[in-house]
Design brief:
There is one protein chain. The protein has 368 residues and is mainly alpha-helical. 85% of the residues lie in helices and 0% in strands. Helix 1 packs parallel to helix 7, helix 4 runs antiparallel to helix 8 and helix 12 packs parallel to helix 14.
Length: 368
Amino acid sequence: MAAASFTLVLSEFIVIAVLPDIVRQFGVSAGTAGLTLVLPGLLAAVAAPVLTLAFGSLDRRVVLWGLTGVVALSDLLAALAPSFALVMTARLLLGAAIGAFWTIGAGVGPRLVPAARVTRATSLIMAGISAGTVVSLPVGHLVAQHWGWRSALFGVGALSVLVLLLQLRVLPRMPAGKALHAGDVLGLLRRPRARVGLVLSALLFFGHFGAYTFVSSYLGDRAGFSASTVAVLLLLYGIAGFVGNFTAGATLNRSLPATLGTAAAVLALSLLALGQWHAQPLVIVALCAWGIGFGAVPISLQTNMMRGETAEGALALFVTVSQVSLAAGSFVGGLVVDHAGVATDYFVFALPAMAAVPVTATVLRRLR
């Protein structure tokens, strides 16, 4: 399952590395090519609850096989596409798979390991996100540079097929149990823990992606790092994300509010520091702290949402809110950068993370 989450994120973000090639190949604008990122994210927000309900009582092993197959199909279809419209169709297929996977795939940890190891198993599955994020840009760029952008997508598609073969061999039967209905999902909004979790998800994903979308511009234009150094720093950021993810996996069973509150505080302080500093050694320290802070956020939020009788329904709402917040943060961040600069952007998007700290420390702690 960690390999599946890695492949899914790699499929989602590798297109960033080949966007210039897509622009040249099909003669579209950069903004139009960027829809290959934005629209799949928005579709994932819709697909998460809709497909979770549609899958009903299907064995979750069969569902995961199908989702991984769709990921492979989307990668291979995009690699072979003779037109931009077909590339976009392939990316929309991927968006549907993303929404359903993060609802169902991220929640199967309790089905695979003993109860005492559930949090660590979930952190391992979530580590695939960090790994995919770290390698997608440098690997995609390297492969596209030497063998063409279609080869990069072919490679990810082949990896998806390999993961599917591994799933066919090792995943146990996972009966769905009671089928979810729309009322089960929407009824979660009446639960205080779920409402608070969704508010925190919106704040933290909006704040993070409003800044992270422009991290390369920040490191190159404001901090003055060379292009090769920026690539190394992004790798360092990804490694810090691993540290944050596994640290949270070790501390969540002791205190979820303390883990999430600390992560939100580190995230906010890192963005504030980056907005004020431009000395390179201090920037590196703040960037690593940012990676550690946000690395702990997804697993903490998912753990909070999964603590209930309808974990899949709760995760469906979480995916919807996080994907919409991701898209909104990137869009609003672009407006802030265009009108006020990247330093102001980092200050502005530290504020949602700061707001999450007292919510976690008071409301979520009281609901525990």
